[in-house]
Amino acid sequence: MEDDDAVVEAIGARVAAGAARPVGADQVVEEWMGELDAVADGAPFRTLRDCSTLSLATVMERHGCPAEAAALCVPLFAYWRAPPLRAGTREFLTDLTLPVCVVSDVDRADLEAAMAHHGLAFTAIVTSEEVGAYKPAAAMFARALAALSLDAGEVLHVGDSPRNDIGGAHAAGIRAAWVSRGRTAPAGLAAAHEIADLRGLAAILGAT
Q1: Closest listed residue to residue 175, CA positions, set 152, 205, 198
Q2: What per-residue confidence (pLDDT) applies to 199?
Q3: HSE-up of residue 204 (Cα within 13 Å, Cβ side)
Q4: 86: which of 102, 167, 179, 200 is 20 to 30 A away, CA to CA?
Q5: Fold of 89-206
Q6: C-beta separation of 168 from 189 below 8 A
């Protein structure tokens, strides 16, 4: 699925426009993502929807924006339920015969809605909501291995987050393929493979 960057940036712009003091939209987004990570890493566990709303509310209060965080998050939550597919995704999945487990930080109802929107089905899905932790937590990857009844050495994890996907998989002893989407690989990236999109997986899987 495509990332929600554009929606997040639009929300950041609305907060910046309503702030009591001058602040850039980029700064709002940066602070929001920082607060989101802090809430997600803290206790008690909260759903991604709650993490997003609470962290945005903190940033809005900081900058004197009087709008309601929950209302501003409505388009973000709607996007999660019907995000566009990335280039090559459907073609890759159509030809794939291997079992696939989706490991996602998105709340289960939103992930299932997105899958239904695109008519997709997978062997298993694991969400942070049911595990009670977000990637790169080891519990997420352990649950995925259990769902597939496979060992770490038999699995390839595919993701676009250097920390959450690649770092988490590496720590769990799972080989990983980083989806770069045109970005430069960060230093120390623990990925066994680097691909631009899912179409690049065909050759990798054919060689394993």
Answers
A1: 152
A2: 79
A3: 22
A4: 167
A5: Rossmann fold (3.40.50)
A6: no
CA atoms within 13 A on the CB side of 179: 21
pLDDT at 207: 52
Determine the angle formed by the axes of helices 108-118 and 74-81, rounding to 10 degrees: 50
One-letter amino acid for residue 155 of the chain: V
How far is C-alpha 97 from the chain's CA centre? 24
Other C-beta atoms within 10 Å of 174: how many? Answer: 21
Angle (CA) 189-198-128 rounded to 5° is: 65
Sketch the domain layout of the chain as residue ranges: 5-81, 89-206
Q: Where are the alpha helices (DSSP H) in the chain?
A: 5-18, 25-41, 48-62, 69-72, 74-81, 89-95, 108-118, 128-131, 138-148, 168-171, 201-206
Report the pLDDT value the prediction gives residue 1, as an integer from 0 to 100.
72
Below-50 pLDDT ranges, the chain? none
The closest alpha carbon to 130, from 114, 142, 121, 143, belongs to 143
pLDDT for position 173: 96
Neighbours of 208 (CB within 10 A): 8
**d(Cα 105, Cα 133) in Å, to the nearest integer?**
8
Beta strands 156-159 and 175-179 are parallel
Whether 12 contacts 56, CB under 8 Å? no
The rounded mean pLDDT for the chain is 94
Which of 103, 139, 140 is closest to 123 using CA atoms? Answer: 103
